Amino acid sequence: MGASSATKRAEQEKGGVEDREESSAGQGGAKPADPAGAREAGPKPRSVRVVLFSLMIAVLLAMLDNMIVGTAMPTIVGELGGLEHLSWVVTAYTLTTAASTPLWGKLGDMYGRKGVFLTSIVIFLAGSVTSGAAQTMGQLIGFRALQGLGAGGLMVGAMAIMGDLIPPRERGKYMGMMAGVMSLAMIGGPLVGGTLTDHLGWRWAFYINLPLGAVALAMVGTVLHLPKKRSQGRIDYAGAVLLTVGITAAVLVTSWGGTEYDWGSGTIIGLTALAVLALAAFPFVERRVAEPILPMGIFRSANFSLVTLIGFLLGFVMFGSMTFLPLFQQSVQGASATNSGLLLLPVLLPMMAVSVVTGRATTKTGKYRAYPIIGGALIPVGLFLLAQMDVGTSRFTSGLYMVVLGAGMGFLMQLTMLIAQNSVELKDMGVASSTATLFRTIGGSFGVALMGTVFARQVEDSMREAAAAGGQTDGKALAKLTEGGAQLDAASLAKLPDAVRTAYEHAVADGTHLVFLLSTAFAALAFVAAWFIKEVPLKDAAAQKPAAE
Q: What is the pTM of this model?
């Protein structure tokens, strides 16, 4: 657009936040009449800071929900029943979140970020209200699916709006703050969930979202002023269906494989074939439509493809380690399950601190290539150290190993998103954000599923060996424990005979040893990929221009 139209629009929206997709002259309320570069020198307008605060609340909602609900699940099952459907309370949420993530990103690119983001918040809050009011397990599963549909747009919308408001040259420090919010959710979620369930009831694990969501909704609705857009293109329905079917089948395979169904069962094989066929047909369709939901052209950027791969591998090892570290600490080291959030502090605090420091350093210097390499080196080292843990490892020693892992994650956590956004044009900001988020989510699903299978099989084998070697009484107790597939907490373990408890602790240690060795191999691939990232200069406010209309 010309300078005159940009000036006119800036005058109409004085004091608001200007969308750089529509005007290259203003950003964050800056006046087009200012000299080039003058806006960058001063502090961010207050309106932008308020919007960023509301975006962080939205990210907190998306991250906090599962952490809180996980703590309340035993109480929920006790009241509603339906223990056999318990996994679907999590699966329904994860499934709709993963399947809707690319759709939210593309809709934001086509029709404007603000309206789409506000819609996702409203859907998430509607799902929260109805989940809290559920009277049966079936209702809860359905309402959790609705909640997950909204959650798919929260993280993507927040990252894409940040990508519009803040140029990559300055975005690092804000993404470091986002990493801090995520760490806060992981630490505080179980504690908040336990407190709410004990004192107010499990329904407040969902109702707690309402005040936070209302604040985010009010702030975004009143302070964020982005010009409305209306795309002339049609929604890519064929691509949306193929991607949704492919992702849904893939998530169900990772959720059900080895648990609900055997890996060699007809259900898992059929779902795997469906996922492969749908995802293989998807790129052929995308190359032939005017407005593809996931433009294949963004993968022509080597940096984008590399950080997408790194994000997948990071999700694989991060979600897996976050699952099995507390299990080792509770079953082997005797820690209390009620403090599960605090048990992860040696991972989360370094991750948060390093994310903030590297974000600010990236903003100051504009350099970032070294950080993925450093993080890519630290993560496999930390995982390999964790693989050495056994029944004699102290909490202090395991804590030191976790610090190494957390620091490595901090170097990669937000920089992968920053590099992905810097690798595409503004018109594809939503797609880039949703793709990076999607691959990390899918990586986490695969990681937890594969590690869970490896862990369960190793624990089973170790217990059978101990049962065969034990006496008549202990052997029967171990065999019964193995058949039940139990994962015992510290209180339950304390009631077992010494020989049975010791055998179970060794079995869990053997299982986590294999899990972390497997994670080390996948993390090493991320280290190799990081070396191929190129130091593409981060765009500043003047350089980040909208594409020609």
A: 0.71
